[in-house]
Amino acid sequence: MWIGLLLVVFLAFGVPKLSEPIKPIPQKIDYDKKKALLGKKLFHDPILSKDGTVSCSSCHDVYNKCGTDHRNVSVGVSGRKGNVNAPTVFNVVFNFRQFWNGRAKDLKEQALGPIHNPIEMGMTKEEVERRLNADPEYRRLFKEVYGTDRITFDQVIDAIVEFEKALITPNSKFDRFLRGEVQLSKEELEGYKLFKKLGCVTCHNGINVGGNSFQLFGAVVPVEWKPSNPDRYRITGREFDKNRYKVPSLRNVACTYPYFHDGSAKTLEEAVRKMSYHNLGFKLTEEEVKKIVAFLKTLTGELPEILREKE
Ligand code: HEC
Ligand code: HEC
User: Which of 1, 5, 73, 272 has its CA 20 to 30 A from that of 56?
Assistant: First the structure.
């Protein structure tokens, strides 16, 4: 009976695709919900910025912009412009390093970046502690979660990181296809096949369809290097690392525009054309671009569960 049912399912949708280079996002992830809900509040609170105008969510809008700000480059405290495009905070827990050049080894180290960055939030550890401890509501909440009377900066970071861990977007059409639950349309499937055949998958693979290696932008047809690039060279100073970045995740890529470290590609079509030309040496036909974009659109997942929870 069960075998029969399984067979029917497999015939309709295909067997789970276990040996594909892209892996589904797990449907559940372990995190401490109390901490994460506190982190969610902090993430959205401009109290963490010097002039009280900027919160993490100003640049990473998790409700309406898939964890990005849809700007070419971000704008921080006092309206100061950075020089880098804000990547999404969705699924960051699956990245091997954080930031375009991977300078933070994990989410904890990463979160210190924007809070202290004079252009982003411009705060010191002491000022964060002073402000939160002066707020009775936060004192109550931290006491509930951490059991201490005085709020520490470490606890603040810990709560934010726990929230970020919860920001996973499972059950995209593509993941359901990988699990053998649905089929892709002809165009989407052909797009996926091209993505593999052309070699996109050599850099964009794994759970995040990226986020797991450093690679060149311009691997085949080089692009101009600029000293302002937020690339690996900034950290290592090696020629080899000029124009080398952490490969961005392509999860939810249909709604994380504009693209590239400088936001220079406005549309997904443009990003795909440039990638194919500079990183693989192919000039794609419009038909091929359409197919690949159709496939990339299947990588849009569900809104993280934590965003539907009340604080
Ligand atoms: C002023 C805009 C701005 C604010 C505020 C901001 N970020 Fe970011 N965030 C960025 C930009 C720009 C980058 C990319 C910087 C780089 O790679 O050099 C980034 C990168 C990240 C990354 C790395 C993602 C990846 O794939 O590498 C995470 C995680 C993140 N931010 C979380 C946060 C958290 C948590 C806060 C609040 C404490 C925050 N951000 C506040 C703009 C901002
Ligand atoms: C040699 C490794 C490599 C290959 C091959 C490659 N990419 Fe990329 N991809 C990258 C890197 C590195 C970036 C970041 C470039 C930057 O921002 O300067 C990137 C960025 C992207 C982006 C923009 C994502 C964002 O959020 O900004 C898209 C879309 C993309 N690639 C799709 C593709 C497609 C489609 C192919 C195949 C035609 C492909 N890539 C092949 C390494 C690669």
Answer: 272
